[in-house]
Amino acid sequence: MLNIGLLGCGRIGQVHGRSIGQIDGARVAAVADALEAPARTLADKTGATVMGAEELIASADVDAVVIGTPTNTHFDLIHAAASAGKAIFCEKPVDMSADRIRDCIKAVEAAGVPFMTAFNRRFDPNFANVQARIAAGEIGGVEIVTIQSRDPSPPPISYIQSSGGLFRDMMIHDFDMARFLLGEEPVTVYAVGASLVDPEIGQAGDVDTAAVTLTTESGRICQITNSRRASYGYDQRIEVHGEKGMLRAGNVLENTVEIATSTGFRKAPAQHFFLERYEAAYRAEMAHFVEGVVSQKHISPGIVDGLRAQILADAATRSFEQAAAISLIEPNGP
Amino acid sequence: MLNIGLLGCGRIGQVHGRSIGQIDGARVAAVADALEAPARTLADKTGATVMGAEELIASADVDAVVIGTPTNTHFDLIHAAASAGKAIFCEKPVDMSADRIRDCIKAVEAAGVPFMTAFNRRFDPNFANVQARIAAGEIGGVEIVTIQSRDPSPPPISYIQSSGGLFRDMMIHDFDMARFLLGEEPVTVYAVGASLVDPEIGQAGDVDTAAVTLTTESGRICQITNSRRASYGYDQRIEVHGEKGMLRAGNVLENTVEIATSTGFRKAPAQHFFLERYEAAYRAEMAHFVEGVVSQKHISPGIVDGLRAQILADAATRSFEQAAAISLIEPNGP
Amino acid sequence: MLNIGLLGCGRIGQVHGRSIGQIDGARVAAVADALEAPARTLADKTGATVMGAEELIASADVDAVVIGTPTNTHFDLIHAAASAGKAIFCEKPVDMSADRIRDCIKAVEAAGVPFMTAFNRRFDPNFANVQARIAAGEIGGVEIVTIQSRDPSPPPISYIQSSGGLFRDMMIHDFDMARFLLGEEPVTVYAVGASLVDPEIGQAGDVDTAAVTLTTESGRICQITNSRRASYGYDQRIEVHGEKGMLRAGNVLENTVEIATSTGFRKAPAQHFFLERYEAAYRAEMAHFVEGVVSQKHISPGIVDGLRAQILADAATRSFEQAAAISLIEPNGP
Amino acid sequence: MLNIGLLGCGRIGQVHGRSIGQIDGARVAAVADALEAPARTLADKTGATVMGAEELIASADVDAVVIGTPTNTHFDLIHAAASAGKAIFCEKPVDMSADRIRDCIKAVEAAGVPFMTAFNRRFDPNFANVQARIAAGEIGGVEIVTIQSRDPSPPPISYIQSSGGLFRDMMIHDFDMARFLLGEEPVTVYAVGASLVDPEIGQAGDVDTAAVTLTTESGRICQITNSRRASYGYDQRIEVHGEKGMLRAGNVLENTVEIATSTGFRKAPAQHFFLERYEAAYRAEMAHFVEGVVSQKHISPGIVDGLRAQILADAATRSFEQAAAISLIEPNGP
């Protein structure tokens, strides 16, 4: 039985708590949160003990920690958990600064503890199926990857002001997906963007509509589009064109019902947002983590994947600001 | 060059004229119609000579006739054309009476002329593809056939009063399709129906909503539904379930465009009616006839297929009237 | 908190136990099974007490019972639970004999206890959506209902020998769905069938391929097809044609991935069988039961729905045996 | 009756000849080709007179010319036809040099003759429908356009050596489509590409896999991908995301048939190549030209559209060669 301590009992902490409840061989042993109420609620549901964060990390009853606290706390919690020898599951982004992530990597490697960066979309059954079939050679060598990602509506301006910008808070998922599907590291990044959805977003210095082109050393191409708005639900699609054919995963609709009337044939909107769309992915990523820690198997994506996505987000931000393509091939590399 | 004489220059005659114009090795040599205007129009377009029906059938310049006149004239025209040694392409139904069709069969067989009953749907590229793949064994032995057929809106009451009823004027196409797909002759027929679309149709003694179940000797099953109404266009679908899988052909929509909004994902209605939906089928059936006559190849569906569909339509009508299943296995058979 | 006692801890009992675990306001309080092991497993997972069936029904700690035992035990358990004043959730079929179900109805009505017949498909989010939209008038008056239902592969011959036959053990779900969608009671039943999948099924006196036509008093039509075989997964589709249009719910595929190669565009098979396909339906039906009992709201489908489906299954069996349509309009009604 | 002279009787000339044959109010009056045979064949089919190119342009029997000759002959033919006062329908590209196209524009404007640049895809019923609905405001202001365009297989190396490269010979269609859908002129172009399909293409100095990003002054974004290879047929898709929703046009498959087996649900490949896929578009563009000339209505796309697409293709080529984004906003503009 793997005893897991949850650091952070907000929305994502509750998702992880529910996932752990459905996994044989793991249980929520302890929970910690800056606020009393959410920690108490989660404890009541799972039978866990409410602790302070430091106490939880130090507890002999905790084998592994799930870090679901605000991003600016990740750095200290990772260092503390690594020192305590706990296996670590950490929400993305690991940190807003690539250099600080490099520092975390040193701490984790020195401690030799398992570490998983929670890029949940890799565990979506549809996207995972696409990647597995590319890896199995069903479409031969990858040539072009297309990723479409649109949120149903923009977040509050307050969030945007501190998020690091669209390329870092939203497209970072797509950068990880691009790496997952391309099978090679991107070497150039070109980003464009505009504020078409809400002028306040533009005034806050960010974009709400953006597109990026990545290329790899062998010439593979990835195009990504992002929008903070989609009237028809959470738009999450990938398509991969290869030597022998094409693999794609479409949206997940609310149901399979179709109505036909004089205006045509109509299906339901896409599932509303990430909690519905990625419910199965959240369960699968936690099962992968538990299995990896318990059976001492390779866990992926790891902390280096967290760094590489952050480097791409930084480069895209720079490309947009400079209106120029950015090369990632540097003398001393990333 | 096959010289074709068109008997009947109404809507369907014009369709066939247009088809012949696109076939290498055939031309419209002569046209005949009870009315001057449509014959003249078609002649102008095709370079054909306007003649009387008898003159056309007798003309040495005509190798084959296309009969697109009202059903009650088919009998005499078939006999005359057979006597004159012309190849015959005849619109369905061959005749409203199975006995009179049997008489036509004798005349055609005595004359030894090629004869094609114009069940155009067999030549729809989608339905033809389904049948060819059944024949090629892609789904193994056929078990269940489902046919859905709905017109966009009911015909005028005057038409219904003389059409012989839904089972004979509309479902006859589906009976032929059932035989085409089942690969065996039906041995039982059970029909139900009601007047749900327009009470006047009921008052005229017909139904506008109907369903039929057919079974074959080996136990294969076919279910057919018909309606005189479909708000979403001409509804024409077939589905065949076999030992190894299922083959189906869906509707043909007006275009491939899809719109996504807050109400979901919407595609265009189905193509409006038979002239659009079966445009390619009309061309293909005429090409099959021309090729068959010119190269002395087997032409199918033939006149016996016209008879068998009529027998099924008669049996369905009887089943509906008697509210009982009808067996087609009789001492002296059909 | 509604305290539920599970009678039967086999596969379906475990499904219901899992569902209850996800419903706020309900818990598995007690479990009973003829075998020790499955009862113990379920108890460990849920914190329930293992009891004998009689003890469980009599227990003051149990407010409601879920009957998931073999069909031939339902009769006695229903009577006992009704006498004990417990709310009852009973797997379908309520009993193999319509007369014995009538006897159960009397007991349940005399006791005044809530009763739910577990026709889970009514709670499938797709099918429920179709029914709700019919009820809301989206397609106007219903005209034709088409139900396709195919299992991935036949059950063991031993099951078939005691199941009452395809019309009673498999198509009974479709009879309930037909009533759910037609909005009127069927008044005629016509059934055909054959043994095309496995000759042993035919030798056991049953069919594996079948079709039924139902009509209602106002003339609405329902066509149902069943097969014990479908290579492409569990085939579960409904389609309803009405005055203003058509509503349909297609299959649920294993994922949304599509591959395009020289052979075309290929999607995944349908979800394999009922445990995957109806996972959400099982949760929703139990939530409906709990909500109904706790809030004293109307629970549907009730015990009379169990009777009506059984009457249709009996009539279909008779129709098949007699090769004749059966009328359900009798002097003293069903 | 509009008398049309065909300059060039190769594959595309024959397509236009066939289209004219189906348009009321127009006929092929004269044909010219460097080779005798194709001119003779087309003349036999249409009743046209075979002439030399100069004679044809000068002929009083010719009201309009269709230029379907090699690109390097367009310049002289356009000047001659404009001088002769003929309406001009010209295959794309108008010329390989933007400056020479500017020269043609002067000649055409001086002569005041109608001119149509044959960007056939604008007349595809699916793409035309998308554009019309954008114009009608169905999705509000355009935000992101995605265009996917893949040929089934690469052309011969000899073609590639003289075509001007992928951005000019293949993506030029997509540049015109981008302008058609964006509703604004692009102001920046960024292109990437590689030779992944055939190394010989790379050795010939071209790419076979490419992607371009365009932006407009108001911030609208267009992403285009091209490949010289697609195993699943001719891949031609557009998608437009706007304020209120999304419009897209998918591929046109060979038929509507779907097979379901243990490997899933499979549909036909996309129609093989442009002659099948754009058959209706070729008819519609010619009908638009004839209608425009006869009724003196606005004809679009015109010669300036030919120039603007060429400017984008030149800029993309430059962007690829320089590995840098190109701005099209220059002091004296294009």
Automatic annotation (TrEMBL), chains A, B, C, D:
GO terms for cellular component: cytoplasm. PANTHER family: BINDING ROSSMANN FOLD OXIDOREDUCTASE, PUTATIVE (AFU_ORTHOLOGUE AFUA_2G10240)-RELATED, NAD(P)-BINDING ROSSMANN-FOLD SUPERFAMILY PROTEIN-RELATED. Belongs to the Gfo/Idh/MocA family. The keyword Oxidoreductase applies. Residues 2-118 form the Gfo/Idh/MocA-like oxidoreductase N-terminal domain. It is an enzyme of class 1 (oxidoreductase). Pfam families: GFO_IDH_MocA (PF01408), GFO_IDH_MocA_C3 (PF22725). This is Inositol 2-dehydrogenase. Its EC number is 1.1.1.18. Coiled coil: none annotated. The gene is idhA_1. GO terms for biological process: NADPH regeneration. GO terms for molecular function: inositol 2-dehydrogenase (NAD+) activity; nucleotide binding. The keyword Metal-binding does not apply. Residues 127-248 form the GFO/IDH/MocA-like oxidoreductase domain. Keywords: Oxidoreductase.
